[in-house]
Amino acid sequence: MAETFMAYPELRHPFEVTPIHPEGSTTVLYQGKTITLSETGQGEDLLINPEDLTRINGFELKPEGACYQDMCIPIKDDLLIDDDGKQWFNLTAFADLLEQPYVADLEAGAWSFSEAPAKRQSMMVNAVAPDIELTDRQGKVIRLPDLKGKKALIVTWSSW
Amino acid sequence: MPVWQQVYEEINDPDFVIICVAEDTGGEAVAGPIFDAANPTYIQIVDENHIVSSSFNFVNVPSAAWIDEEGRIVRVDEGTYSKIHQIGDGEEAITFGSDVYTPALKDWVEKGAESEFVQSAATVTGNLREHSFDQSKADAAFRLANLFRAHGQAEQAEQYWDMAQTLNPDSINFIRQNLTLSEEGSAGETFMKVMGDYVSSGKDYYRPMDL
């Protein structure tokens, strides 16, 4: 096989340099989504407005805890922080609690979260299709759970 | 991709969909023309961040899952070629792929849960490779690298791609994606060495297909 099979070195870094957060905002990556937070707390942990939690990872804050579908994680005191009258939710401490991996580049203000194992349990235990959201080439959002009622083949390939 | 279009047309069932996902950080520039050449009518996704591979813990492409009307995975496989492919002619020819997958798929679409190819939930979950903390963290690093790439920040992109490969050295997806965006290409000397190491260490490359 030719050594240059599927080689696109010109596509390795084809983009112009642009700042990741031009207005001093914070970028959160989660399951293919890019979420921009205009306001976060100070420090090395990622402190978010509690109302931003749902649009990041689907969890909702309720009296019984942070809830996703029928799962509720009790919120300990160190997850909700009062800072001079302003309340923050410590997203990285929550991730640590869930054993959810993440990688941060503090200089760029960018945080990338992998999926939380607890949200994978229904797949790993009961073979339920993962709750992922994909955007097709026409810009339409496809959520796997929304395909109910049809049989689906999901198949990966690549140009390489 | 033309063969999946052919399969889709042959099945021709309004209650069956194919979601065809290109695991390509190169994006529309590399995957788009290949899709377009197939004149596809199925759902086409360009998955620059390899979300689908990591969600299903697929080590490489092509891999696939069948999802039934209730949203349950009823079969999962790696190495899901739609037919036997041939590159080159005569003694130089290289063949790969298999002709067993497509007939099994058609059987399932026709018979549903009665198909002999449907797997139990226990078999499906047994076949899904559970990821370690570090393997999962590699996904976060890979996506952070792609963010930097999209913003033209090559040094940081390389740093986090390296982190992803270090955290999950067994991911053929990451290895080949990286090599594809290099002078060497995805099937050069480095990849052949990786393959050799896989075989000699007795690791699964594609999990054997039980068909």
Could you describe the 3D structure shown?
The complex is a heterodimer of chains A (160) and B (211). Chain A has three helices and 13 strands. In chain A, a hairpin with a 2-residue loop joins strand 4 and strand 5 (65-68). The two termini of chain A are 13 Å apart. With 160 residues, chain A is of the alpha+beta class. Chain A has one domain (9-126). A four-stranded mixed β-sheet of chain A has the order 2-1-10-9. In chain A, strands 3-8-7 form a three-stranded antiparallel β-sheet. Helices cover 14% and strands 32% of the residues of chain A. Chain B has 211 residues and is α+β, with helices and mostly antiparallel strands. Chain B has two domains: 2-127, Glutaredoxin (3-Layer(aba) Sandwich), CATH 3.40.30; 133-201, no CATH class. In chain B, the strands form three sheets. Chain B has a two-stranded parallel sheet with strand order 1-2. The model of chain B has no long low-confidence stretch (mean pLDDT 91). The interface between A and B is large, with 66 and 94 residues.
Task: Give structural attributes.
heterodimer; A: 160 residues; three-stranded antiparallel sheet; globular; B: 211 residues; alpha+beta; Glutaredoxin
